[in-house]
Design a protein that fits this description.
Helices cover 35% and strands 20% of the residues. The chain is of the alpha/beta class and 323 residues long. The strands form 4 sheets. The protein has a 7-stranded mixed sheet with strand order 1-2-3-4-5-6-9. Strand 7 and strand 8 (157-159) form a beta hairpin. Helix 1 crosses helix 2 and helix 7 runs antiparallel to helix 8. Bound molecules: zinc ion.
Length: 323
């Protein structure tokens, strides 16, 4: 098994959110629950093996804020005398590469970790980051989901709870404000969008915002219906992101090219709206899910967004589920 590199894993930025799509691509068809379960378990192993050897690329932004690319979701870092503040944790097995990338940013210890939502590819590194001193902060649903077995139907997969040290200890319902390293850090919950635990993290003075998995830059998004996500919520969160930013704002997406802007965000939002309309029209005509996929309602956007493991067929199925 280890001699065969799954095609999904050859893509940089492969993320666990994409396992359903990868399973679909690998078999050329939709899996039975039993097959999907076996496939997903295999992919978790492969994904960890891949993350273990993936390089971390650091992008320096402004006001001592950087973003690390290469371990699950995009990880933002604020440095300064109060210690390093991380937005998302990446995958646990990337610890050596992330440790080196963080050391290159300065000698300060890691003191805070903020989770943007509960998914594996944003929280798997929680336990080791806590073990080196990070206090973990999140929306209260993130703590809830990380504390118990979570079932994600679209993967037919059960996630176990994280070890105690990986569970957030400081949680909030809607909003929370921190002041660290001279920077105000505003945490704000979205209405349910990608999940019902998503938050934005805004660095006010720097005019930088990490928008979690409400924005996938240049790739079709995963939508987690198992924990409150929906296509309507994804569109509403995109509108909220557009309203909260200007053309000067640096926008960090959960996945995809990690340094983004309002123009790319608008393109993503317009794609979501157009695909929702097309899929809703087909469903209203009485077409089945497979007939809707066969009609290729995403065709106009596939060249721009369709090259990831959330392929056009998988994304169409996710939208179909929610219209
Ligand atoms: Zn996610």
């Amino acid at each position: 098994m280890s001699s065969i590199l799954h095609p999904a894993l050859s893509r940089r930025g492969f993320c666990f959110c994409c396992v359903g799509g990868a399973a679909y691509a690998a078999t050329g068809g939709w899996l039975t629950p039993r097959e999907a379960f076996a496939e997903a378990r295999g992919l978790v192993t492969l994904f960890k093996e891949s993350a273990a050897v993936s390089p971390i690329v650091t992008h320096k932004l402004r006001n001592n804020i950087s973003v690390l690319e290469g371990s699950g979701g995009n990880v933002a870092v604020l440095t300064g005398p109060d210690g390093k503040v991380l937005i998302d944790a990446g995958i646990g097995v990337s610890r050596p590469q992330i440790t080196r990338a963080l050391a290159d940013l300065g000698p300060e210890p890691i003191t805070h970790l903020i989770n943007t939502h509960w998914h594996f590819d944003h929280t798997d590194g929680n336990p080791w980051l806590n073990s080196v001193g990070a206090k973990i902060i999140a929306q209260e649903n993130t703590r809830k989901y990380l504390s118990e077995v979570q079932r994600v139907e679209d993967w037919d997969y059960n996630f176990l709870a994280l070890p105690a040290g990986g569970i957030p200890t400081e949680v909030f319902a809607d909003e929370h404000r921190l002041k660290l390293n001279g920077s105000s850090i505003d945490l704000k919950r979205y209405a349910p969008a990608h999940t019902d635990s998503d938050i934005s993290v805004t660095f006010g003075e720097a005019d930088i915002v990490h928008v979690a998995d409400t924005f996938w830059n240049g790739v079709y998004p995963f939508i987690d219906y198992s924990t409150g996500g929906s296509i309507a919520g994804m569109i509403a969160s995109s509108d909220a992101n557009l309203a909260a930013t200007t053309d000067k704002t640096i926008i960090i997406p959960g996945h995809g090219k990690p340094v983004s802007n309002r123009a790319e965000l608008r393109e993503f939002r317009d794609m979501l709206v157009a695909v929702r309309e097309s899929v809703a029209a087909l469903k209203k005509q009485g077409r089945s899910r497979d007939e809707t996929v066969a009609a290729k309602p995403t065709a106009a956007f596939d060249a721009r967004f369709g090259a990831s493991v959330i392929d056009p067929g998988f994304f169409t199925r996710l939208v179909y589920e929610g219209v």
